[in-house]
Amino acid sequence: MKHLAAILVSFLFLAAGASTASAGVEDEQVITISPQSGVSYQVRYSCAAGTMHTLVRSTSGIRVIVEQQLLFEGVDSLPGGSSIAGLPGNDLTTLSKTSNVADSWAVLETLEGDEPLEAAGPTLTISEGVLDCPDYAAPTPSVFVPITPERVLDTRADTAVNYSGPKPGDEATVVLARTDLPALPAGAVAVSATVTATEASTDGFVQLLPTGTTPGGSSNVNPQFPGHTLANNAVSPLASGGVSVYTHRSTHLVVDINGYFVESPEAAAAGRFQQLDETLRIVDTRTASAVNHTSGIVTGGTSLTVPVADFAGLGDEPLDAVAINVTATETGDAGFLQSAATGSLVPGESSIVNPTGPGDTVAAMTIVPVSDDGEIDIYTHADSHVIVDVLGWYTNSDATASTSGRFVPLEPERVLDTRMTEDPVNCCKTAAPQEDRRHDFFTGRIFPAARATVTVNKLDEAGARDLMINLTAVDATDAGFFQAGAADSFVDGASSTVNATDVGSTVANAAIVGLNETDGFGLPSAAFQVYTQNGGHIVADISGYFTK
Fold this sequence. Notes:
This protein is mainly beta. It has two helices and 33 strands. The strands form nine sheets. Strands 26, 28, 29, 31 and 32 form a five-stranded antiparallel beta sheet that branches. A four-stranded antiparallel beta sheet has the order 1-3-4-5, with no helix packed on it. Strands 2, 6, 7 and 10 form a four-stranded antiparallel beta sheet that branches. The model is unreliable at about 1-35, about 65-130 and about 430-435 (pLDDT under 50).
């Protein structure tokens, strides 16, 4: 199974051009297109969505996204001579089916009133191509086993764990063998970890991935400046050689394992994920917006005990662990936050969130075991306000056995990238028809108070109910939050997934999101959405899904 199956080819029509592909994208499709001066095309197929997107650029600065809905039932190649219609200039229409398109293609037409919009312009002729898409239903489902976080990697000389070399450099890969990880049963297929980049040399990214796979197709942590320290939760399938951590630019690395997934081909009781109807805020220590807290900022060097089962209304549930988003805000100084089941936390043995200075706001998702009383502790190294949102919970052995909520790990795949100047993926659609709820037509950047829609029909067909994603806010228009979830279950601003702290910020966080079942018109269309408070680009990568 390939980690990134979408294919990208770009041509400039001053003359017939050679294809180019970005890092991490496999160039497996050859496309020839009738020349047209001053127009270039990017054609990309999204495996998860089952759609082909054509980005049309002209020298006048016009950029247009055009979408085809393609059905490839058992088809892994594009026959020579197949054609799709293209677009010139700024005439926004849809691609329509042409007479010599193979019967295996079906095109989703956009209607204006009762009439289909007609495509215009040159014809894009596909001479040959291979769709190298994963079989999303192939991996055996698994269940989660939470553990008290255990540090398995630290590349810093004074605190080194499983490492003895120099600071990892640009485009370096640090391998963690299975023997470096906590004791895992033979059926373990994936790990969940907090990955921290610290003392970064410059802006770049860090990626957790199965050993032996090609890095660069997704990211987990995005340092933004020299010396930056930040963390994020990541889930990666386990290869026979373990997992690896890739550094796009030189940085020290710290990895804490907080659990693992074990194969469960049949119904199981423990370790199944249960999504809440909507993300629930259970703690906010800020006076103006306090939730379940009255004593103000959490003092550095102390722990905040959170009765999760009580606050989230899960007291009668067979609860083993919770998936939470923890936000540190209005921090007193640089430091870290740490979480564990109440009574098991040892300060400094792991971390989940790393504020970089006074007044910082930073969030991270994590999975935390709960105590027998359904409580967790959150430790703050320096003074910090703390916000806790519950995404869902994992069952224990007292639950009724079921096949739903099991996790299917996937090699990371990018399912959304709104950057038209880069490699747009599943880009630039919005859910609401209001004029103020749309993307910037020329850059793809999502406007303030707008939502981006991410279609994942092929994952829905494979049996996905919820997705494990990594959400990255890129080049934020201003400070603000980004929120992910199924459109029919979350309220704008009721929770947050990623917090941009400044203009131009790039920051990532893991999340678990549910899927819509229809497109708003009653037609099947599995999707999640991302709301942005103040605007910016959005990138989303999937690492697996939970079964229906």
